[in-house]
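DOMAIN: structural biology
WANTED: fold as tokens
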Amino acid sequence: YQLGGRGRPDPQPVLEAAHRRALDEARAAEPGRRPTVLVGKSMGGRIACHIANDSHVEAVIAFGYPLFGQGDRSKSRDAVLRALQVPIAFVVGDRDPLCPIADLMALRDEMSAPSTLIVVPAADHALEPKKRPLLALGTSLPEVEGEILAALTVFLAAPDHRATLTVPSPIPR
């Protein structure tokens, strides 16, 4: 739908097929077995979870996973996470109405796949922290982004562990 310039997403089977084609193309362009990590933002992360188990990937990174469709708790998108068998890192804003931290933490306790949760303070679903709260924390957007990358580096080095991290980390300045 994005390639066609349409604003409304395609049905899930069409999205999954598009993601599988992209994965196949990426693997064909780089022959040889290398570790593969699927990464997606919002719906892209959800679709990555749907194809991860049967696509022989090592992990998933989901930025702003949409646990609840349009913030409506009756539209939970937790079944795919309960079925997930590969490690996943969630990068979620603490003000994201589509993925409340308390709900995601409770779900993680019920998941069989290892998961890492990286909480971005003062950030919504777009993962853009608000400037004033960042200043109150004594940090900046580049510092927060650097800590997210550092946390993801730790996850990728050992995706089978379980962790919950908040960035910026509470380091005295």
In short: Residues 122 and 128 are 8 Å apart (CA to CA).
